[in-house]
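Action item from last meeting closed. Structure (337 res):
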């Protein structure tokens, strides 16, 4: 094949790829507009003021006006009318007046951003992201936030994804990609080329955090130290940790079916006794749990048979506990007490 023929084939392939990207972007935008144009399938609050008491913030996935936007319900009435903001997000989390949103800007060239809002949902700043939004967390004092994105892939299945996780300061500056922190497993420093880090959860001391580190077929719950810039393994087969409000327990995903099609259930680790409680459930849970209170977890599950729609479920941290549907048509819950 001559150089001219190769260039012609390359040009043709480029045109096809760009054309497919444009068609997909237009289709995605059209689907979003169709969802927005229908009447909302959930009860909406008629109160003009933002809820100010204890509440749950989440991504609204009910078809109709407000689809994909941040919504809020009273902590005392999770199934009650919801207030919907103008902020459209893929993932959302809030603490101490700092509200973080990860979003996708669909277009001919799709881009990704993190955006910080104040307590009245006025945008304060946006930050470019290098890939598809996956996880976001805010420290208890609102001074730090962590973002995880997929650089390649779109799910936490073995050998099919690459992530980037960054901890940043709301006042400015960041600690860089956590993959650059030394990783210490069983007392020895390792540096695998396929290392990934994701799913940060913060303590109250502004220095210590927990996250997931992975290499090959293994995942570890790691304790991070911002001052020392280290990640130290605590436990194997633990993903997407979430620290309890009192700092005594960590909830995480535990893979019950290692291999190309993982099956995750939630587990809870008591940090004092090092005792693990498995919350065995019928469906695989690919989410970073949120604590409703000291004895109950929240998590999102796709609504069966409905693409683009999810529900928020709750489960007590007891062996044999039965999950309960808490908020219909909702995703990415964050509890403000």
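Sequence:
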């Amino acid at each position: 094949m001559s150089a001219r023929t190769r260039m012609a084939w390359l040009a043709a392939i480029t045109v096809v790829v760009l054309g497919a990207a444009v068609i997909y972007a237009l289709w995605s935008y059209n689907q979003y507009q169709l969802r927005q144009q229908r009447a909302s399938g959930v009860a909406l609050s008629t109160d003009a003021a933002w809820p100010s008491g204890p509440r749950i913030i989440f991504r609204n996935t009910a078809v109709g006006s407000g689809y994909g936007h941040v919504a809020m319900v009273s902590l005392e009435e999770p199934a009650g009318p919801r207030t919907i903001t103008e902020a459209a997000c893929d993932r959302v989390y809030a603490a101490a007046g700092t509200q973080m949103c990860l979003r996708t800007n669909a277009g001919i060239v799709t881009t990704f951003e993190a955006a910080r809002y104040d307590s009245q949902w006025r945008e304060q700043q946006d930050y470019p992201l290098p890939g598809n939004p996956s996880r976001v967390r805010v420290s208890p004092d609102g001074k730090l936030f962590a973002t995880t994105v997929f650089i390649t892939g779109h799910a936490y299945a073995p050998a099919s994804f690459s992530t980037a996780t960054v901890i940043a300061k709301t006042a400015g500056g960041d600690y860089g990609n956590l993959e650059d922190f030394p990783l210490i497993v069983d007392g020895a420093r390792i540096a695998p080329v396929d290392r990934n880090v994701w799913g940060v959860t913060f303590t109250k001391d502004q220095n210590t955090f927990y996250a997931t580190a992975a290499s090959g077929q293994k995942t570890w719950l790691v304790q991070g130290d911002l001052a020392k810039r280290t990640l130290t393994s605590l436990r194997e087969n633990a993903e997407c940790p979430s620290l309890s409000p009192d700092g005594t327990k960590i909830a995480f995903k535990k893979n019950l079916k290692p291999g190309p099609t993982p099956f995750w259930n939630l587990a809870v680790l008591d940090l004092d006794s090092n005792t693990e409680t498995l919350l065995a459930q019928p469906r695989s849970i690919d989410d970073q749990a949120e604590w409703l209170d000291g004895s109950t977890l929240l998590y999102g599950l796709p609504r069966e048979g409905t693409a683009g729609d999810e529900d928020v479920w709750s489960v007590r941290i007891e062996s044999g506990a039965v999950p309960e549907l808490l908020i219909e048509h909702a995703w990415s819950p964050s509890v403000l007490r």
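Note appended to the action item: The radius of gyration is 21 Å.
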